[in-house]
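[step 3/7] fold_predict: job queued, chain A
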Amino acid sequence: MSTKLDVLKHAMVPDHTIMSEEDVRTLLSQYNITTEQLPKIFHDDPAVKAIDAKVDNVIRIVRISHTAGRAESYRLVIRRPKK
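[step 4/7] structure written:
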């Protein structure tokens, strides 16, 4: 008996989407940064796998909060280092 869990449907998991190249350029220009300066997220993170993101994709994460309203954050997908 096997059921597959969709992590993106869990109430505690915020919305994850892969950003387009144009959106990434706009983001980097707006903050005057490079992709390497973004916070990182590993390629084998369950939410990253669920949206089929690849290494070097930039992910937009949108959280809804009763106190802060809508909060966006961005992460660069990286490969987990081998042990």
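[step 5/7] annotate
The mean pLDDT is 90.
The CA atoms of residues 24 and 58 lie 7 Å apart.
exit 0
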